[in-house]
Amino acid sequence: MSVAAEPLVYFYVPGYKPNYIEYAMTFYPMNIILCLEDGTPEEKKLEARYVVKNALQEFSSDSEHTLIVRVNSVHTPHWEQDLEELVPERPARIRLPMVRTAEDLRQVERKVQDVIHQRSLNYSPSYEVMIECCEAIFNLGEIHQASQNIYAFTFGGTDYFDDCVAKGLVDPALEVRKAKQKLGEYCRSVGLQCFDTTYMAYRDLEGFREDCLLSREYGFTGRSVIHPDQVAVVQDIYGISIA
Amino acid sequence: MFTTYRLELPEPVTLNKLQIPVFTHMFLQNVSAHKVQVDPIQGKRISVTYLSSYPREQIEREVAIFLERFTPEHDEASASSAEILEPELNMVELDEPPLEKLCSCCTPGNQRNISDDLLEQRWLTLLKNQELAYHRPIITLLEYFDQSYVDYVGRRIGDCQQRQYSVLLPASFAEKMNYFHSAPMHLLLATHLSHDHETMKSFAADVSANNGKLPQDCGPYLETPPYILQSAPCYKVYMEMEDQVFEDNTAFVLKGQSFRNEGKRVYLLERLLNFTMREFVFLGTPEYVTRMRDLTLGWTIEWMEAAGLKGECALANDPFFLPGKVKQNFKVPKHVKYEVRADIPYKNDTISIASYDTHGDFFAKTFNFRLRDNAETWSGCIGLGLERVVWSFLQQYGLQSEHWPAAIPESVK
Prior knowledge:
The structure holds two protein chains of two kinds. Chain A is an alpha/beta fold. Chain A is 46% helix and 17% strand. In chain A, strands 1-2-3-4-5-6-7-8 form an eight-stranded parallel beta barrel, surrounded by five helices. In chain A, helix 3 links the parallel strand 3 and strand 4. Chain B is 33% helix and 24% strand. Chain B contains twelve helices and 20 strands. Chain B: InterPro entries: aa-tRNA-synth_II/BPL/LPL.
């Protein structure tokens, strides 16, 4: 009997690496994010689109794995091509990085609807909106109001930190914590799911555990991971283990 | 071309992180599959990939037989039947090496399989009968990694006795350590014609009649093999130490050829019939041998990190020296072998490039060598497979030397 993935763990896989995707598909029920954005180098964008498209076709009947595609941000030259190629494959959800304003989200939705109409697709996408800069935190309510199809908000810690540094803020790490707190509180107040950022030091499981505990307090309901060892920690802290 | 199917491991088998590489290694030795992947999170599910032209029922049968043998119930049953025939090993619980810390976190820049490039750019030439010719770039890399390993690890070990031996291991010596029980499928024998004049004449006549080819059945002309081709160079150290009493903990360093009959599994530098091994051998107290295990594994990982090689340390199976049936009691650690595995990025896999075996008192008792003031003498060794180091390095960085880590000297590029 197949079991659907719980909305707790989101496993990132670089879109241009078919063997990594294949490996992730051997995991127990899991949300797998096929990443076309930061996980794919600039010169591999085309190749990644092709690989991800094939993966979505190949594993379309796999009911145990939820395949989510993280496309490139609207502030890059790649996002429209990403959507044109991948919306027809009907990924379970689309993760949208670096949404700064409500208009960014509306722009994506318009493009997705265009593709759906052009191809006469029977598809109602939902979005995981990534909050990755100070502007987005400021515009959070407006971004939320911009679409009926938001499945969750997610936080992008590295980009948020970089944004704080670029803005010359004195303590970027503190700003990141404050932003996470604000995002968590907002999602809790409106009953929306909220997923925390990746933790890159994947061998530091103790540090990861502490970070997850704090994040849960803030209101996050799940987390993105980059290594299988991190999965059990997330399941343990954010929900009931599937074991 | 390939088909993949998933199945659950039978109860109560659950594989932990250390057991997964052991399981996959054994699985691929016993099942005609192209690849097997274990879910690393639960350790309960495996995905088997096989050539689509191979009959599915046959694969499923092979998998079922393997899993039946792999389950603890079976192990216990066979162990208890073996007990009737043979005394058990006296297992010793040792502290584990700090495996979690033993990883070399580098960032390889190549994701492609370099096999074709090696042949097209003539770094290797394929000869007949699975033989290879190494060209200058490969020779240079073999020499460089060997020397840098000796410099890095040997210097930290301190005083090491150097040795050089032939590749021939006397069959009588191998018999004494029950070598022929342990891995007969990997055995390569070295023999010669019988010295009897009539036999030689008869052999020559047979060859002439056969247009210069060897007779189909050579057996009647050959002596019982007086030698085997060694599967590891370190055996000769134990041979040399037979009946010796030595004063203090002692380390040896040697380089030699290893021979393994890998049959059809031979593949370029990844799996060879014979390869070059750099070894350090340690004889002394159990504490010394165990301490050298942890230190040399750690230094090997540090050396890899310095060279840019990505990999990690893991528990392994197939202790190379232990016979299936032992004739006496030995003190042997529960976990005999730890491997250092290097990443092969293009297939998201790893290969073993080095291993440390802690033999307990097996060789000391079998060959009667001991420390003068110590009742208990152990041995251990670490061996580095040089061809596999070069193979994994090139798989991680490719053939273009401008993409190699800065630590690789210009003279090697």
